[in-house]
User: What shape does this take?
Amino acid sequence: MKSVENTSLLQQTRKIAESTKVNTAELDNLIKQLTQSADDNAIDRVIALYNKTIIKYEQAIWQDNPSDKEIEQYQDSFRVLEKIYELKSNDERYNFKIVIPIADRPQHLKQCLDSLLKLCQCYQYGGYKNSTYSKISVLIADDSRDEKNIRLHEQYCAEFTKAGLLVEHFGLKEQLALVNAVTTSHVALDNIIPDTDDIKDASDFSHKGASIMRNITYLKLNNEINKNTDRDNTLIYFIDSDQEFCVNTTRSDNQYAINYFHYLNGIFKTQNISILTGKVVGDPPVSPSVMAGNFQQDIKNFLDSIAGSNPVDACQFHQHLEKCEDDASYHDMADLFGFSNKNKTFDYHCTLKNNHTNAECLHDFSNKLSHFFYGEHPTRKTYFNYDDGFAKTTTARTVYTGNYIIKPDALDYFIPFATLKLRMAGPVLGRVLKTRLQHQFVSANLPMLHNRTVASTGESEFRPGVKNNTSGIDLGNEFIRQFYGDVLLFSMEEITNAGITLNDTNKEIIQTILNQKYQTIKHSYIEKHYTILQLKTQIRKLLNDQKHWWHRSSTKPLLAENTLTNFNTFLDNIQKNFDENTDAYREITLTEHADKHLQKLLHAILHYQADLISWKKFLNS
Assistant: This one.
């Protein structure tokens, strides 16, 4: 037993409990016991009861969007909880290894690590001992090509380690050495990690893609965790570099309102699960190639509205933000995923803060148009909803690869089909896990804030498949990766639902499914292409209509010189990327191109079962 001398801590515990308007008689009785003797069982009883008071307060403040002051008090309650945990002889909560794959994104990485440090300071999960947050460590899996960016990533690792976060840099040389060692003894992994026979210089091993990078990191983690006596008490937390450990609400853009580690620890300690996935709020998690239709609907709606306004009047586009109830409303083909697509338009909510006019609002909106091609959606951001809290889980079908947590045993389930470098890797993995893990694969309401672009440029620092050159922005490669990623996803969904074994015995059945899904999705894409180009023509006509105030000589000076140019450049880029004569369009519609892609998909699917066996054999060797 350990004597408790810090009665002020216990008084603070009671004070916080009282502030939640909860009957504190039971807690008061346990506090008195702790002032006399503090064995772990007594401390656990106080922790359990105190957790209930936190939940009560949490539920109360989320009746509406909580204020910053309420969130600060909420954070205070957890810091007190951590002081109580310090009284225990042994803290048996999970340790977290956070993994961040990154490629040439130093600004995003710094923002991400800043948010993690802020989260640790706000909630202090696991305590702060020897100038370090003792239960949190970070692995930066660097896939960068630019030496300057690599140096910055290494610099941030050192800076944040000094600030209390243990951050390790996993660079190209170490990755190449690891893959060479693995493939020398296990040659049957070429669908999971890349062949390195022709790579002599580590710099040539860059830009492999996030899925391959995660699989290589799985190898490193397996080696390290197998040597770790805390293997069974470690959770691996994969996130993306363009995310932050906070959420947005209709009241606040960046609220540190979720104690992620606390709730994940509770879920994994009390439920029999192997993999948990969260989601994202903020910018959509999908490609602009599947958002151009609904965004143009919203642009047309906005232009119609602002055309009827007086350009010198105070801006009228600061309506109260409402939470979006229509999941995947940002996706042009949400119906393919089982969501209703009602062709609803969304209002634009001006982001200018100081006094300004409608004309200034129009100009500011025009500046945001180019951001769309990097994944930002100016009219359809998602906002956090508390719903039933943070601890409830439901059976999942999609892995959000920028926000998922696994037990070490789940390293068996690599990111499938990684070397194809297609989009939709997470949903494909999710369909596999749904079949194989069933109730052990769940989702929880623990989203992270997603920011596709950096504020200084309105662009993503690096985004595979998006090229910005003198002729405009080219989404062609990303478009192809998205389309055939969709074909793979919906094929795998049908295959797994039917329980079809993935081997040559079922080759004809699987090929038929692939062909059918290809035709269905091609039809959807062609139909949407037609709608996108129609909308582009309608917006151009509306924009060029001389009766609107932005063309009048008396009001033209109110607009910044490049406002209309920004709109026209956006529409030109839409034409450039969605025209029927583009290489990307031909790559998905012409038979000779499609056959090559479908054969690659077929080969990968037929080898998946063998890949899984080879992978598990290696991890357990």
About this structure: The CA atoms of residues 99 and 139 lie 5 Å apart. Confidence is low (pLDDT under 50) at residues 1-6. Residues 507-544 form the longest helix (38 residues). The longest strand covers residues 95-102.
